Amino acid sequence: MSVSATPDVAPVRSSGILLAFRKNKLSWLGLGLLLIIVFAAVFAPLVAPFDPLQQNIIMRLKPPSAEHWMGTDSYGRDVFSRLVYGARISLIVGFFAILIAMVIGSAIGILSGYIGGLFDQIVMGVLDVMLSFPTLLLGLMVAAMLGASLENLIIAIAITEIAPFARIARAPTISLKSRDFVEAGRALGFSRLRLMSLHIFPNMVGTVIVMSSLWMAAAIRTEASLSFIGLGVPPPVATWGGMIRDGFETLLYAWWLPVFPSLAILLTVLALNLLGDALRDAVDPKLRSE
């Protein structure tokens, strides 16, 4: 009897995701919050009532009012408008940094786990060194070397997340490479690249996606931290971390400057974590069966 070379793990269906959302009511809150934030970022020119770069010294440090919902900063710029445009930077950095880290990290992890031996030991040693650095410290070092810009910020944060993705991809690869469908593909003469990309990776993609949603929240926190210390997107571009830094010295008499961008970061991270919990339930067969 011949053995099929088709993977024997069923893909995650939309019904499984819906079931996970029904069981985890808070996931709807996370999805709703994330959709609102994404909508505000995409349609920022329509949502923001003012130009985020427009200065009006006469209106500087005005508290929240009917005209300026979240007050104004030390240059008279509307805080709400800058908050909306700042969502663009946070989401762009978080999404593309995690996407790059996911592709590179997963490829390294699968390759290391599949080849094994000395190559695996060397790769894991390098990854252990990267993981020994705190994420923020590693991102700070890379960002300081590359300089402050949007592209460099994405690269810096992506580098900090490559090692965790590689670790996540390596473990299932070691167990999957000895499964029947991989052995059958190897017997049929399939190349290593085909086995790793079309037979091993699809069986771990659910876990990778779940971790992507969770680590995107970490990437947004890192972006805000680097912007706070001046290694993010340079001013006058609105970023949440930069807004917190600008309002740090005026906290006692202009509380709205650091508070509102801090709340924006809190809600975004909360939304991604709640959504990640639901996706985890959808891809984990043990949790789905409970």
UniProtKB/TrEMBL annotation:
PANTHER family: D,D-DIPEPTIDE TRANSPORT SYSTEM PERMEASE PROTEIN DDPC-RELATED (PTHR43386:SF1), OLIGOPEPTIDE TRANSPORT SYSTEM PERMEASE PROTEIN APPC (PTHR43386). Belongs to the binding-protein-dependent transport system permease family. The chain crosses the membrane at residues 28-50, 91-116, 200-220, 253-276. It is a multi-pass membrane protein. This is ABC transporter permease. The keyword Lipoprotein does not apply. It is found in: Cell membrane. InterPro entries: BP-dependent_transpt_permease, MetI-like, MetI-like_sf, OppC_N. It holds the Pfam family BPD_transp_1. Residues 87-276 form the ABC transmembrane type-1 domain.
